[in-house]
Write a structure and sequence with these properties.
single chain, alpha+beta, four-stranded antiparallel β-sheet, 4 helices, 4 strands, elongated, signal, Lipoprotein
Length: 127
């Protein structure tokens, strides 16, 4: 009888372990705080947009400087400005509903230097 109980517990533990490994979220999802630290450690502010894209690609994000678009961005309640905006993304290893981490580079259209960096996380990118 004790060996049957041990085998049942072992099977349950193995099932839980395999389920979490298949979902991928155990190892590849990040918290909001960890993502904020990751974005701060990129140090792309002040770089040219092309150099910032190269750094983002080196860090595992997908983006291309060719897909930057001119967008009006609100700086505060009464002030808005046009920026060359580019979104770079990285996703967790999950096959179904991955976490998608986006970093938005806002560059001055005249100098092509990155002025501001934004970020957001889509927890479940199913659809």
């Amino acid at each position: 009888m004790p060996t049957t109980y041990k085998m049942s517990c072992s099977r349950s533990a193995l099932f839980v372990l395999l389920s979490s490994l298949l979902s991928g979220c155990v190892f590849t999802r990040v918290s909001d705080d960890a993502f904020a630290r990751e974005v701060n450690n990129l140090h792309v502010t002040g770089m040219s947009l092309h150099a910032a894209v190269m750094e983002m690609n080196r860090q595992g994000y997908r983006c291309s400087a060719d897909s930057a678009r001119l967008t009006k961005v609100a700086l505060d309640a009464n002030n808005a400005r046009f920026f060359k905006q580019l979104e770079c993304s990285k996703q967790s290893m999950e096959a179904f509903c991955p976490q998608i981490r986006n970093v938005v580079l806002n560059a001055d259209p005249d100098s092509d230097k990155v002025i501001r960096v934004g970020k957001n996380i889509t927890q479940r990118g199913c659809f």
